[in-house]
Amino acid sequence: MFKSNRPNNPSCRNDSILSRLAFLLSAQAVEGILSTAFFLYLAWTNASDYGRVMYAMAGGAVVQTIIQFGLYYPLVSKLGNVNESESRKLIVSVQIIKAVLFGACFFGVLIFAWRQQLNSELTIVLAIMSLGFSVEALAETFFAGLRVNGRQNVEAKIKVTGSVASYGYGFIAAATGLGAIYISFFKLVSGLTRIVFGYRIYLQGHPKNEILSGCWATANSMFRISLVFALIEILGVIYNKTNIFFLQKETGLDGIAFYSATWNILDAVSVLGSEQFLGWVIFPLLATLWWQNRNKAGDLVKRNAKWLLAIALPIVFFFYSESSLIIGLIYPAKYSDAVWMQKYLVWTIPISFENNLFSYVMMVAGAAKLLLAFQIAGTAVNLILNFTLVPLLKLQGGCLVIIFTKLFIACLTFGYCRIRFSFIRVRDFLFPVVLGIISFGLFMAVKPLITLHPAVITTLTLYSAILFTIGPRFIGSFPRKIN
Length: 483
Prior knowledge:
By secondary structure, this protein is an all-alpha fold. Helix content is 84%, strand content 0%.
């Protein structure tokens, strides 16, 4: 299954970037629809259970990142340039590392719950959710191999199966009133489904009696190589989730529920661009292309940077202007605080798009240690903001914390790429910014005349028409082909 980067390898064909993304989007669409329906149902039926699950998901996300330990980046880089035997050792060695980290993390979760003086129900929910996230982290190892070989279609099928099983169980548990403890098993159902199918596909290409042979030395090497990447990822999750824990102390579980109501919507969009597109499609390409043809790699980065901002701006406008409609249609009236919070949090989408792109550039360019220094600085800023803004401004402070933190780190990563490389400049973003300002001016002019919703549609139509007709003259065509 995991083959070297030979000419007949799918990853080397003149394949379409968009087709690879389309497979991942299909899985994400199923995940997004089912998860949105499930969490909405839970939010409507029991806000306290919803708050417990959201709190546990924040903790589980931290655990998942620790277990992944930044192994994805060196694993992808190595899988593209080794033979089938070496790929087996890499896959198994990564799983060995993750298994060891899982044991340590699970013990850490129990210590955290004790130190935070969580009640028994919330402790159990946190432990079960952390277990589910951990199993998903193990399955991600197999998916890395699929992406390198251009088999995102297989990954998508596995994830769709896991999503259906996971949220099918979750709906049943919530509908029958089993409570937060039993509901929290939905994540474990997803993880077990993914890892079982991923392991079966792996065994198709590797004899069972060779699974552990020669993997211990490779595991030690991979652990040392991935340490910097692990710290980068762990700090990233920490500064993305710490405001949840500060909000819990200041606003209680209901405050977390209100914040999560809009964050879950916006974060799904952010993940689509930052993880699914950049991390799972563009990064594997850059990891190989960077050292083979720097000019092509630079052009790929430049065009993606401009198009990501151009696409993010109308998303920001839509979620900002229609926040009342979106939250009002989805959540009960008690979630009204999520309306104004969405106007703040929507700005994390373009910031995340650009920051992740430039972070991947730094990784492939050998500047991972400097990126780690940026993450450390960002985490320090995040903690300072949490200690000052959240107690003072409560929910508004929690929103400002994540915006300012992301913006600070994005300025650092962009600044490095701007100074170190010549393929990206501030003026490259001029066209989408000017187009966005003109479109917003039109919106403000026509809104009193034709009311809010028609004005939003008119503005988005004008923006899209200009972007896709004359836009390519200024920002280039959207990158479609791998070669």
